[in-house]
Design goal:
Blueprint (H helix, E strand, L loop, with lengths): L1 H5 L3 H13 L4 H13 L3 H12 L10 E4 L20 E2 L10 E6 L4 H15 L4 E6 L9 E2 L3 E7 L26 E2 L2 E2 H7 L4 H15 L7 H4 L2 H11 L2 H13 L1 H8 L6 H17 L8 E4 L2 E3 L6 H20 L5 H7 L11 E2 L7 E2 L37 E6 L4 H15 L5 E6 L13 H15 L2 H7 L8 H11 L5 H5 L9 H11 L6 E4 L2 E2 L7 H24 L9 H6 L4 E2 L4 H4 L4 E2 L7 H4 L3 E2 L6 E7 L4 H16 L3 E7 L11 H12 L2 H12 L1 H8 L14 H10 L3 H12 L8 E5 L2 E6 L7 H24 L5 H17 L18 E4 L8 E7 L4 H16 L2 E7 L12 E6 L28 E7 L4 E7 L7 E2 L10 E15 L10 E5 L7 E4 L6 E6 L2 E7 L3 H5 E7 L10 E5 L5 E9 L17 H5 L13 H7 L1 E5 L4 H16 L5 E6 L5 H14 L2 E5 L13 H10 ...
Parallel strand pairs: 3-4, 11-17, 13-14, 20-21, 25-26, 31-38, 39-40, 39-42, 40-41, 44-46
Antiparallel strand pairs: 1-3, 2-4, 5-48, 6-27, 6-28, 7-8, 9-10, 9-25, 12-14, 13-15, 15-16, 18-23, 19-21, 20-22, 22-23, 24-26, 28-30, 29-31, 31-34, 32-33, 32-35, 35-37, 36-38, 42-45, 43-47, 44-45
Helix pairs in contact: 3-13, 9-10, 10-33, 16-17, 16-18, 25-27, 25-31, 26-27, 26-29, 31-32, 37-47, 39-45, 46-47
Length: about 1400
């Protein structure tokens, strides 16, 4: 035993930690934790707090340290309050504001941590400080770990033009361990080798031969392809259920070598028919078409294009809470799905007050007043086109403005004038007035100016009409009782003031109604306006602004009415005001406590004991359970309960519970009232109990009790006296103590505090003076019912339970569903028939389960991904799975042209010796040797990944020529921060605005430019807390940041702080505005940027710019941009660079697209820069998620050549020349840079016309191109010069991306993306045609023009299909010299170095 203990392995530590965590987690959560650890999904969070700590910075040699605020007695410095982030671990101490914050940076489990932790938790519990813990390691280990959650593709390349480098790579002779998938054509080789060890070699040969024959990559005939998808489905459905996912994974991920064997599978007619029937139904109900791939978890749609395993894990965790809750409430099996799919009404942000109230005095009525009688009244008028900004005049009360006014306030006069203005100008606005004046009976118009004003207004309205009254009521001067009677005498000398203003006035009707309506509505301070019932903010009530705001509201709400008319919700027969007031967000009263969006709920899914003891009044089957919490020995507590009682008696469907929260220590004497209430609830019928409690709560009963009257003297008729007395006399005080503890521990109330709980939702800690009226209870009931209570009630009814149990269940389920984070609508996905086309895997009984429905064509990229996902999912959780084979019929080409692996493990894996395995990798076994393959990494949206080591050409993998294993290692270099930025005053993206990202100690680490498309920007970053700023220079001079969403600092804070702490995408929104004095300035105007930008650019390696070279030199640099992928093109690229440098005396800076360069090129380029003295910079940009994605590597690279020119380079680069890698330059490119582009943003060379024998291949001379170009030429994209200033100024990049987005949806358009796009856009973005000698290529130009050529391009020749290398040596004599010069230099240095590898690694 001793040695076993000593040998404790990593694996047993891991199991111990999981076991310890299991004490706090359910089984399902523990499985999800294992999955999260396997995914390393918390690594960024740990890395993030490490980075935040390093920014502090940590004191030297400390393994744990504390940082705090408000610390005069601890340190001499008083620091500003540190930022606390949303995901910080804050100790649950006392809830007080302005406590000092103490942040502990330490490693959990160390001695230092324990001593700090002990002190800090004690202080936090005493309410002396806020304690925050952040993970910190004093010396983190540099080892990297392997990640998962990404895909790797080996795409089969076309070998029409041979483009493979002939330089040999020294191979690694390691043997590829044979795959677990050891069965080949029915032979189990592992078993055979065990039983016949003497035949090892022959068996290996046989296995290889069989593999070669099954991996038959010979092309299929078109008629053999037609049915492949159905045949794959038939194969999957024919194997035993538990192997079917494995078979699906194998067929989709190794399709190129499985295609031949599938052609022999027979498909039954039943299966075909069933698939077609289901497809018809799915396309009608969900809009899913044949071949589409969709995943639904518990009815939630998970879009596979945007979701990755990390976000799916988040969804699973969110769902687990609801699923386990329902399971604990004994809702299982088919009931689970029914409750889950109940639509829970989301919390509305804005509520509308019902304006159908008699207290409103309407000035006009658009529908009935004669002044509007010539207007059309048909709703269809709304749909008629008008000029922008025109308000349609329709005889309907679409727009209603209600003003709540106190005549004594100065603003009231201004607002009345505004109402008059709207009326006179015949704006289609119905205007209502509510005057809030003194309601007392003992005052009249002579003593109170407000009352006088109201009576006078009524008098004039009686004589004329309300609009006239409003117009004429211009009393002049300040309003007082004197000015009113003077005005009356002056204007209406015949009227008797006593009859109008006096005590016996005839014009006092409805005076109290206004004040009452205002009080009951719960609105804020006067004056106040409602537009269609929606209250305007106090800052919108300025009469100067209000006019514009109302007109804007009319314009905005017109669109909503148009939509309602268009979809048929609003029809001719309906009253528009009724339609408006019957919307779900209309309430009878405003109470921010009840309507706030920030809601807290009790968790009822725990131990059942706590709630079952709470007895209620009206214990029928009710949808709403309200609990009143308070100290009922005090007036506010009694008042609250009394109001609740009145409400409950007036409106059925509510039950009432009472919880005592006494201020002091409960004893026999001070709990008499509450025990009597409790006893009556337990023993009496509803009506009797309600009447008795109501009597008890009245102040006279309280006085009697204080005078030592016995409770039994207060009993009423109709009560069961014996039962009551028996109960009352045996009630102990202890149960009140337990309620008091419940209030403290669960509800977090201090003794004596009041609260209202409605179906588990805790409403406010009511302040001493705060009233919660009957109307508030009415509103609360309405809001609770509207949430999900009504729908839950219908569902619970079907379960046929006893009333009390049903009400309890209803309350608990409602709290559970309402507390769940709001997600999109759950879909009910089912199939018409599911015998032949749906794969069913059933869940384990009596456990929490996820209901997963998948619709997938087994031969698509979705299937390659989803098959592995489902295998992992079924190991992580209990899953009820249905997979529908959504096959596409009549295929005319191979549906998949790649091998694929999806790297995902359900749990951390260990090696045989119990240590942790290095991590998940993508393994491709048994690949056919003949095809040429190219490797693609398919990673989550926000990952920037690059190859860090591989001696092989990953663009051209040819297994025939490799001994042993091809390995490659990629590294996750950055996580992306993406965002959208808009100018608040124009609503447009601020083109050319620059952001920088950094930390407090190093503010400029990364920078970017905002695009006009969607105001999009992206910044490279890593886990940690970052500060986003406007770039110093013009951006910061002209603009300022106003607000931001999705960030981690308050929306109005000056510093925009963004925390990256997960592998998810982080997308923020930033709104900026020009500074007042810079309104007329333009970011992209011609002024120079100064040298600041250039110098602050962080050069990635070697080529950093010298600070003191001054501006002149920068302008003189030649900037050359190029892209290359694969060893052959990198070899060409080096030759192109040397040829450029040979022909110019100007300093050169090369810009390379980093995304696709090989590790060996990145390693050698710095040495080359030294030898040939040039500068270089590696730029990278992630293809934005909203821009149509290309799947083929070559087309992606073409896209990078043209689509991102405005954002790849800093603003200080004025001109850039793109030179293809396979070009040889024979002239000074300075000439091209200085060439006048005559106002065009870029210049290209047209295709040569001189080689006559190629005429048949000149596609641009006929068809679409001939008609589109007209007299213009078709240009070649191998060489072009871009005037970046002009390019940005006319938003050329945004136009190109817009056109690309439109055209690229059609797979047949843009066949040469980088060339077709600018030529297609020639009418919108002009091209300057460069002189022909700038680009000569043998395919299109005749031999005589070669002498004058300034650059020679090695174009592909569609006629001869000559390989690149032979063409280069034949056409360009100097090419061979350049090539051998670079080779000699490379070998002299010891070559590119070769390393060994895996998948994305994360520091």
């Amino acid at each position: 035993k001793f040695w076993q203990f000593v040998d404790t392995s990593v694996r047993s530590y891991y199991n111990l930690i999981i076991k310890k965590a299991g004490q706090f987690l359910t089984d399902l959560q523990a499985h999800l934790l294992r999955f999260a650890l396997a995914l390393r999904s918390y690594s960024p969070a740990i890395h993030s707090s490490q980075q935040i700590a390093s920014d502090e910075p940590p004191p030297e040699g400390c393994s744990a340290f504390v940082s705090f605020t408000d610390s005069k007695h601890l340190l001499d410095v008083c620091r500003s309050k540190p930022y606390l982030y949303k995901n910080d671990h804050t100790y649950p101490g006392v809830n007080k504001s302005d406590l000092p914050v103490v942040i502990l940076y330490a490693e959990i489990g160390t001695k230092k941590f324990s001593s700090f932790h002990k002190v800090l938790t004690e202080k936090a519990e005493e309410g002396k400080l806020v304690y925050v813990l952040r993970h910190f390691l004093a010396d983190p280990k540099p080892a990297k770990m392997l990640l998962s959650g990404y895909g790797v593709e080996l795409a089969v390349k076309s070998t029409e033009y041979k483009a493979v480098d002939d330089t040999k790579v020294k191979g690694h002779g390691t043997n590829a361990g044979e795959d677990d998938n050891d069965e080949v054509q029915g032979f189990l080789f592992r078993t055979l080798k065990k039983s016949h060890p003497e035949l090892q070699e022959q068996l290996t040969e046989l296995r290889k031969h069989l593999l070669e024959s099954t991996n038959d990559m010979a092309p299929l005939k078109v008629w053999e392809m037609q049915d492949l998808s159905f045949q794959a489905a038939a194969r999957i459905m024919s194997v035993p259920k538990f192997d079917s996912l494995k078979v699906m994974k194998d067929l989709s991920q190794n399709f190129p070598s499985r295609a031949r064997s599938l052609t022999r599978v027979a498909v039954t007619l039943e299966m075909r028919k069933e698939i077609e029937e289901n497809q018809k139904y799915l396309s009608e109900s969900l809009g899913v078409h044949p071949g589409d791939g969709e995943l639904f978890v518990n009815g939630l749609h998970i879009d596979l294009d945007t979701h990755n395993p990390f976000s799916i894990l988040e969804i699973l965790r969110g769902e687990a809470k609801i699923l386990e809750g329902l399971h604990n409430l004994e809702i299982k099996g088919e009931h689970q799905g029914k409750f889950l799919s109940l639509p829970v009404n989301t919390v509305d942000d804005s509520y509308t007050l019902d304006i159908r109230h008699p207290a409103i005095m309407w000035m006009n009525d658009i529908e009935n007043d004669h002044i509007y009688q010539n207007w059309p009244s048909s709703l269809q008028e709304l749909l008629r086109a008008t000029f922008p900004g025109v308000i349609r005049q329709i005889r309907r009360n679409f727009f209603n403005l209600v003003l709540f006014l106190d005549p004594l306030q100065e603003e009231s006069v201004e607002l009345l004038k505004l109402a008059e203005l709207f009326y006179k100008h015949k704006i289609p606005l119905r205007i209502g007035l509510v005057f809030v004046v003194n309601p007392r009976d003992d005052i009249d118009g002579f003593s109170d100016a407000g009352v006088g004003f109201y009576r006078l207004l009524n008098y004039i309205a009686d004589e004329y009409d309300v609009p006239q009254a409003v117009i004429k009521m211009d009393v002049g001067g300040t309003l007082s009782a004197g000015t009113i009677s003077a005005y009356l005498k002056r204007k209406y000398p015949k009227a008797n003031p006593e009859n109008i203003l006096g005590a016996e006035s005839e014009y006092d009707y409805k005076r109290k109604d206004g004040a009452l309506f205002y009080k009951k509505s719960g609105l804020d301070a006067l004056p106040l306006a409602l537009f269609n019932g929606i209250p305007l903010n106090p800052d919108e009530m300025d009469p100067e602004e209000l006019e514009t705001i109302i007109l804007q509201r009319i314009m905005d709400s017109t669109t909503a009415f148009q939509r309602a008319v268009f979809v048929g919700q609003l029809t001719e027969g309906l009253d528009v005001v009724d339609y408006l007031m019957e919307q779900p967000n209309v309430v009878p009263r405003m109470n921010p406590l009840i309507l706030s969006t920030d809601r807290k709920y009790l968790d009822f899914t725990g131990r059942p004991g706590e709630w079952s003891t709470l007895c209620c009044l009206y214990d029928g089957m009710t949808a709403v359970s309200i609990w009143i919490v308070g100290d009922f020995e005090k007036v506010p507590g009694r008042k609250l309960l009394l109001n609740a009682l009145k409400h409950v008696r007036a409106s059925p469907g509510v039950r009432l519970g009472v919880i005592d929260n006494p201020s002091g220590k409960p004893s026999e004497d001070n709990t008499v009232l509450y025990r009597a209430v409790w006893a009556s609830l337990l023993t009496q019928k509803n009506k009797a109990a309600a009447e008795f409690v109501q009597k008890l709560l009245k102040e006279e009963s309280i006085q009697l009790l204080q005078q030592k009257t016995k409770i039994k003297d207060l009993l009423m008729q109709g009560m069961d006296v014996d039962a009551f007395e028996k109960k009352f006399n045996t009630l102990e005080v202890d149960f009140i103590r337990s309620q008091q503890l419940f209030c403290q521990d669960v509800l977090k109330l201090i003794p004596g505090q009041r609260a209202v709980i409605s179906n588990g939702r805790i409403i406010g800690l009511l302040e001493e003076q705060e009233e919660f009226t009957e109307e508030d209870f009415h509103l609360l009931q309405k809001i609770t019912l509207r949430g999900s209570a009504e729908k839950v009630k219908a569902q619970v009814k079907q379960m046929g339970m006893k009333a009390k149990h049903a009400s309890d269940l209803l309350m608990k389920v409602d709290a559970l569903l309402a507390a769940a984070p709001k997600r999109e609508v759950r879909r009910d996905v089912h199939f018409i028939k599911d015998t032949h086309s749906v794969l069913h895997l059933s869940q384990r009984e009596n456990e929490v389960f996820y209901d997963v429905v998948v619709i997938v064509d087994p031969l698509t990229r979705e299937a390659q991904k989803i098959s592995q996902l489902l295998i992992v999912l079924s190991q992580v959780a209990n899953v009820k799975l249905q997979v529908f084979m959504n096959c596409k019929a009549k295929l005319s080409e191979l549906p998949l042209k790649s091998f694929y692996r999806y790297v995902l493990d359900p749990d951390v894996t260990f090696l045989a010796n119990e240590t942790v395995s290095p991590g998940p990798v993508a393994r491709f076994m048994d690949l056919p040797e003949s095809p040429l393959l190219t490797l693609n990494m398919i990673t989550p949206e926000s990952w920037m990944v690059q190859a860090v080591s591989s001696p092989y050409d990953l663009d051209n993998i040819h297994l025939q020529e490799v001994n042993g294993v091809v390995t490659a290692e990629f590294e996750l270099e950055h996580l992306l921060l993406e965002g959208h930025c808009f100018d608040l005053s124009t609503g447009q993206p601020p083109r050319g605005l620059q952001f920088t990202l950094g930390m407090s100690r190093d503010p400029l680490m990364y920078d970017t430019i905002v695009m006009a498309n969607l105001g999009y920007f992206q910044l490279k970053a890593n886990p940690g807390a970052w500060i986003l700023r406007l770039r110093k220079g013009r951006s910061e001079e002209i603009y300022q940041i106003l607000t931001h969403d999705g960030t981690d600092s308050p929306a109005d804070a000056g510093d925009v702080i963004v925390v990256l702490n997960s592998f998810h995408s982080k997308i923020i929104k930033v709104r900026v505005q020009k500074k007042a004095e810079k309104i007329g300035e333009d970011l992209l105007s011609e002024t120079t940027e100064g040298k600041g930008i250039w110098d602050s650019l962080v050069s990635i390696a070697g080529g950093g710019s010298k600070k003191d070279d001054g501006q002149k030199k920068k302008e003189d640099d030649l900037n050359i941009f190029s892209v290359a992928s694969g060893h052959l093109y990198e070899r060409f690229l080096r030759i192109m660079m040397v040829s450029v440098l040979r022909h110019t005396k100007t300093p050169v800076k090369f810009w390379f697209l980093k995304n696709y360069l090989s590790p060996s090129f990145k390693e050698t380029i710095s040495h080359m820069a030294e030898k040939y003295s040039f500068q270089y910079e590696l730029v990278q940009y992630k293809w934005p998620r909203w821009l149509h994605q290309q799947t083929e590597k070559q087309r992606i690279i073409w896209g990078y050549k043209i689509l991102f020119l405005d954002v790849l380079f800093p603003l200080a680069v004025d001109k850039i020349i793109f030179v293809d890698a396979d070009q040889i330059v024979r002239a000074d490119l300075k000439e091209l840079r200085d060439l006048d582009l005559e106002g065009a943003p870029y210049g290209y060379t047209p295709f040569c016309d001189s080689r006559r024998e190629m005429e048949g291949y000149r596609f641009w001379k006929s068809g679409y191109w001939a008609s589109h170009l007209g007299h213009r030429k078709y240009h070649i994209s191998a060489l072009y010069v871009v005037d970046l200033k002009k390019f940005r100024k006319i938003a050329a990049g945004d136009r190109l991306r817009g056109q690309y987005q439109a055209l690229s949806q059609d797979p047949n358009s843009l066949s040469n993306l980088d060339q077709d796009l600018p030529n297609n856009m020639i009418h919108q973005v002009a091209i300057k045609s460069l002189p022909q000698e700038w680009l000569w290529c043998e395919t299109w130009c005749d031999d005589s023009s070669k002498q004058t050529a300034k650059t020679i391009d090695l174009c592909n020749n569609p006629k001869t299909k000559e390989p690149k290398l032979t063409a280069a040596a034949r056409i360009v004599p100097e090419w061979v010299e350049y090539d051998s010069e670079i080779k000699d230099y490379g070998e002299g240095r010891g070559g590119g170095g070769s390393l060994h590898t895996n998948g994305p690694v994360h520091n």
